[in-house]
Specification:
The chain is elongated and about 65 Å long. The model has no long low-confidence stretch (mean pLDDT 88). The longest helix has 11 residues. The protein has one domain. It has 83 residues and is mainly beta. Strands 2-1-5 form a 3-stranded antiparallel sheet, with no helix packed on it. The chain has a two-stranded antiparallel ribbon with strand order 3-4. A two-stranded antiparallel sheet has the order 6-7. Strand 1 and strand 2 form a beta hairpin. The structure holds zinc ion (2 copies). One zinc ion (ZN) binds next to loops.
Length: 83
């Protein structure tokens, strides 16, 4: 199952936890379908697992190297090791 990250607070949640609701703008309007994170009802992005430590990357700060994704911590460590 895909995991997602709340853009507002960084909370990680499963696909089936996504909140959806209908927003009504006035009485005649049939309503607009919205979906968002279960915590903040905000936008969310795909969560990736770090290919190095396996941690969920709960931020948009990650680095892609050779089709692998690394969290910021691992990239920092990797850089230190490589030098
Ligand atoms: Zn949130
Ligand atoms: Zn990592």
């Amino acid at each position: 199952m895909s995991k997602y990250v709340c853009c507002s607070c960084g909370n990680v949640f499963d696909e089936d936890e996504i909140e959806s609701w209908i927003e009504y703008h006035g009485l005649e309007y049939s309503g607009e379908h919205w979906c968002g994170s279960p915590c903040c009802q905000e936008n969310y992005v795909d969560a990736y697992e770090c290919d190095c430590c396996g941690e969920i990357i709960n931020t948009d700060r990650y680095v892609e190297i050779d089709d692998k994704k690394y969290c910021w911590d691992c990239v920092t460590i990797k850089r230190l090791e490589d030098i």
